[in-house]
Design goal:
The protein has 252 residues and is an alpha/beta fold. The chain has one domain: Stationary-phase Survival Protein Sure Homolog, Chain: A (3-Layer(aba) Sandwich). The protein has helices at 18-26, 69-80, 101-104, 106-116, 134-150, 215-220, 236-242, and strands spanning 4-8, 30-36, 55-59, 62-65, 87-94, 121-126, 156-162, 173-175, 180-183, 188-191, 197-200, 206-209, 224-230. A hairpin with a 2-residue loop joins strand 3 (55-59) and strand 4 (62-65). Helix 2 (69-80) runs parallel beside helix 4.
Amino acid sequence: MKPRILVCNDDGINGPGLRPLADAMRALGRVTVVVPAQERSADSHALTLHKPIRVHRVSPGVYTINGKPADCARLGILELLKGRVDLVVSGINLGFNLGDDTVYSGTVAAAREAALLDAPAIAFSQDPEETRYGPAARFARSLARQVLARGLPRGICLNVNFPRPLGVRFKGAAAARLGRRVYSKEVTRRSDPRGREYFWLAGSDVTSVRDAGTDVVAVAKGLVSVTPLHVDTTDATVLADLRKWDLSGVRR
Ligand code: MN
């Protein structure tokens, strides 16, 4: 039987990386697309729990919802595919999701939600300067084929970032840990036309920390980065230390 593949994203139905990824997956199995009707970048792992989610069928096997990226994965897996899913892919995002970005990313959240539901999942993101998605889509197909064959451990999803390719292919790929991307800490404060103050959080400046072995360094070298992410974010070292603390709560 053909593998069942769910395609999600956070750039929405008009995201430039959606069709290339969906088309690449069609070579591997039966594809269902469930994506937000509007762009939902940086919505992280939000779920729509307090209002109805409507599903709009765009074409056979392609749906938009008035929800978030994680909603797409959850509704797609549990309802539209009735739990019968062999792989969930998310992307290809317009822009990197490296290091710190993975905390905010809706692209990664859709893959993480799939991992929480025990479905193998991969998030794909690309250098925002790159407008061609062909090389990334071909790489995605090759990696997806391997994940379908090998599976992934429970609670793990893969996070993949594409640098600008050289011509039609990449220089190579590297298994990498998460690095650090430090965004500008500036908060812009302004006044609206009625004299009330408002704030603007998103700074455009980002400093990538060049630590060896990280996804940040891999893409800087022109390599595709592949990072395994665990839904369990416990830190084992600090946990062991914390067990020596007095957590009884009786000391004031
Ligand atoms: Mn996005």
